[in-house]
Records
---
Amino acid sequence: MSPTVTTTQEKEGHINPPNPVLGKLRYVPAGYTPKPSPHNYHLPAISEFGDIRLLPLRSMRPVPTVASLPSATNHAQLATHGFTAVHHPTTLHSAPYTLSSWKDPALLKEFYLPDTEAMLKQINGCNTVIAEAVLLRSAIWTESDALATHAGHGGPQPEDVPTPPPDNTKKNLETGFPSFIGFNSSTGGVSPAPKPHMDYSPAGARTHIRKYHLSLTAAAKDIIAAEDELLSQGKPLKDHYSDSNGPHWALYSIWRPLKLVKRDPLALLDQRTLADEDYIPVPIKTPCLGRDTMETHDAGGFLARYGTGHEWNWIDDQKPEEVLIIGLFDSDMESKGWKASGGTLHSSVELPGTEGEEPRESLEVRCLCIW
């Protein structure tokens, strides 16, 4: 498929900045059905995203603190946009810690995960935060990266390549809870994802808490029990779950750069500007962790077609103290008619002229929140 590149200005009725920054974003062409990737955690190949557009990126500056976020009326909010951004330095930003400290799973467990959990509770008022996965992205984009072989779930080795002896330390890191992805020096870091996507559809979110990791399933047992009871009664979850005795739950991705972002920044699409017909379901092959098998499952997500009025947001020159909270699913928002139920499309975005900059380094923590 031959890609097309289109430059599109913002929709009428919105004020453009004097010199808007344009970023390259890749959509699935109209009328085309993308082929799923055979690789774990991966979206379809970049050749499947042939509708390439240069679109304005709306700056999210000034970035508020967590305490001032509720009163930041002109700032993106989780309940409206599906994402938000806050200025939130953590313990690892102070001496004696350095950039290398952010690549040490032991330090992340000791300091960063508790800091992140406390931040989320303050922002959304949830009672419980469960960190399920930590991803280190530190490579230039490639079609198949460390995600594909995470926890030994890649394809079989060629016959003439000896199988390396098992490394239980690395295996425990990759299959533990939370699982750490991109921290294995033998496979390298994870690369950016330059394809607008949403990690989970509502059905995919429910598959995720049941299939991704046995520890996650155990943590979500009350949610699963309440949902299974409704299903046994023939009641659609979209219409009945928020009115049941089941706990309110949501999935988030907490995204933070480890150094000043000079290339491949993350851009987020205001969920209100994507029409229902522009969502494209896609299966995403995912390992089932915490088990003794190499079993995988399909976690359903969304891709998108372009539609006029799409509003992409970013933090220009994003610094390590500036963090993005990305909605992936919210059971309360499902009942309000949102097709993606509080999730928002996001993508790394190519800025023309930055191809020679050093790779972006970022850390992503995926969490289950329960009220």
---
Amino acid sequence: MKLLKRWAIVLLTMFTATMAFAQGSADYGSGLKFNLDEEGDKYVRFIFWSQIWARSTQNNPGTLIGDEPADRSFDMGARRIRTIAYAQLSPRYLIFTHLGINNQTFINGGANGTGGTGAFGAGKKPQIFFHDVWNEYAIIPAKNPHTGEANKYTLYAGAGLHYWLGVSRITSASTLNFLMLDAPIFNWPTLEMSDQFIRQYGMYAKGALGRLHYQGHINKPFATNIQPVADGPAVDNNGNPKASFGGYADFQLFDQEANVLPFRVGSYLGSKKVLNIGAGFFSNQDGTRSLNTAGVLQKHDINIYSMDVFADLPIGPKSKNMAVTAYSVAYNYDFGPNYLRTTGIMNTGVPNPAFEGLRAQEGAGNARFSLGTGKVWYTQAGLLLPKEFCSKVRVQPVAAYTLKDLEALDEVGHYYDLGANFFLDAHHAKITVQHSSRPLYYNNKVFNRAGEWIVQFQVYL
């Protein structure tokens, strides 16, 4: 009993990761965790997951898929296939690694140089790469190594290719327990520009001051070299990149969240009572460039600020295990004049040069204006229905709304998402169905809308 009690304390303090326990299955426990001593103070842990998408997409006007015009398309592919391994052989230090692939479809997302037909045909054999590799040192650990008591104040420092980011809670979102089907993407403001799939090399500090949890970083951005055009918008071109700075802090009014790993939970499914208020920032001097009408080069700082609130609250009788989850965030982006970025997740379409109709300004396939200099407001909410609603699975209807007021566009964009999570075994095995509606722009104004149905099959162990 003494050993079991000690092991439980360890799990609930230092070694509880945000991706396990609170939002997971009771059968899962600590998962694929291998203790290297009787107390569980030394261990290695592995996490595996995949998210497979099946989609029916209303493509933007002027789309080709496989050299054929396509107003609508169906496809299946891998949104994420990932593996995490991390180890702690001393309370004073930890090593974390995270690798995998993303966004493989039947026609793209494959290894460099693949295309056409055959063993190295289009979309095949994507290269596995590291998402995270970082080392961490405990300056003030969660538990006093001499007395065994929990410390009210903690401080950890680390370095590497890391995910301890600034700006907002959802910028450090866990991909395992989203409330919606996926992230809205603009929550990662440097995605695949000056980062490696969100991460940059740098140093970070994180910890807690009572109920105030914090994280901050100094990073070296990856180099960008998009060439600006005269009298055009600011573009990603940072020359010899200057250091980027970022941070996020939230005050946690009720239950305290674990912060061993950076991944923030999207939905606790009623297992916690959480209400957090947070704010963050990201700054990178001379991160973009533009040319004025005279062709003179101008450099611009990137400055981003956010404020957000997250709530995950059990409601109703305890026997029903109902919960409401909500998150709202406001961003103020400044990338330089008229900066505008387009994103199409697992986009299978390319522009049709022969198209003669009204062509979507965003591009082909499912492309949308993701972010730019301006303001974005995003809100999502979900309701975990009572257990008796369905005896086989738990059901959680969800919805999200985004308002984008971007400097380069003449009209505000409204984006809608509506769906439901079907939990076979909490987040460890779930199926999500979601419909998304996006505006389409022509000459900087909305002229139509398009939709996309997605069914996601997720398992993580």
